[in-house]
Design a protein that fits this description.
It is a single chain. The protein has two helices and seven strands. By secondary structure, the protein is mainly beta. The chain has one domain. The strands form three sheets. The protein has a three-stranded antiparallel beta sheet, with no helix packed on it. Strands 2-7 form a two-stranded antiparallel ribbon. Strands 3-4 form a two-stranded antiparallel sheet.
């Protein structure tokens, strides 16, 4: 089995060389996985809030907007902050449509719960997501 790219993989924000490296690194995966790895180069992290050392992001500093490739809104910051760069890359993959393991997504930064409005958010994860996204947001 091998990790594969699927039309529903959310990887358009990653350089092609990073995607190829992930396919090689995780080539033996054959089920769900969620891992954060270190990469050589620093990348801009769009996640902001206490998990990356910021103060809590309050509701008066955000708007709810639909991001490209999504059919729901996310909590987006209105005000610019000092950019945050990281070598952490979170990688998520797993089974999809009869395929053992596709690359769902990869993004710079730590593991974060799914968005509150993501239709795939599991019922037992909603309280964690609600608590997390009350103080975190994504940069535009």
């Amino acid at each position: 089995m091998a990790l594969v790219i699927h039309p529903e993989s959310h990887i358009d924000h990653l350089p092609a060389e990073n995607v190829l490296a992930l396919l090689k690194l995780f080539e033996d995966k054959d089920g769900f996985f969620l891992e954060t790895i270190k990469v050589p180069e620093e990348m801009l992290c769009k996640l902001r809030g206490p998990i990356v050392g910021d103060l809590p992001i309050h509701e008066d500093s955000v708007t709810w907007e639909q991001r490209e490739g999504r059919n729901y809104n996310d909590r987006i910051m209105l005000k610019n902050m000092t950019p945050f760069y990281t070598q952490d890359l979170t990688v998520i993959g797993g089974p999809h449509a009869g395929i053992d393991c596709i690359l769902y997504t990869a993004y710079p930064g730590p593991i974060a719960p799914k968005s509150l409005l993501d239709p795939s958010l599991e019922e037992d994860k909603k309280e964690e997501a609600k608590s997390f996204w009350a103080t975190h947001a994504l940069e535009k």
